[in-house]
């Protein structure tokens, strides 16, 4: 029972969305069966089949860069939408690849420069520590010599 309700629901929903179309359209009219479809000549302004995309200068540059057309002059005013979308996705992927490479190179640059800076900072710290220790030991020795001189007197 539940399976039957599910099948009816699916069939009705598919019919309402026109996804379930009959394979052949039968007509009772003899005129409709005998008539042949007329073919219209397409020009750039009419849209038959695929949707068309109006091309801007940036779109022309992308189409030429992605080698869909040889030059900007040969790009038509309207281009099929699927060609434009594929060129845009290829351009987007290429831009992301370039950005990833630049990011990786910049990360290596930062690592190298920070290691150099850390080494220089460590050297200065070592020198200041050594100078501080020498100063304290000299003061301590002077104090010892003064104390020993006072005791001997």
What does it look like?
Helix content is 66%, strand content 4%. It is mostly helical and 153 residues long. Strands 1-2 form a two-stranded antiparallel ribbon. Helix 3 crosses helix 4. It is rod-shaped, with a radius of gyration of 41 Å. About 14% of the residues have low confidence. It is found in: Membrane.
Q: What share of the residues does DSSP label as strand, in percent?
A: under 5%
Please give the largest β-sheet. 2 strands, antiparallel
Q: Report the count of strand segments.
A: 2
With helices defined by DSSP (H or I, 4 residues minimum), what is the helix count? 4
Give me the Rg, rounded.
Answer: 41 Å
Secondary-structure-based class equals mainly alpha
Biggest sheet, strands in spatial order? 1-2
Helix content: 55-70%
Low-confidence stretches: 20-27, 29-42
On the 0 to 100 scale, the average pLDDT is: 76
User: What letter string, H or E per element, gives the SSE order?
Assistant: HHEHEH
Would you kindly provide a brief summary of this structure?
The chain has 153 residues and is mainly α. 66% of the residues lie in helices and 4% in strands. The chain contains 4 helices and 2 strands.
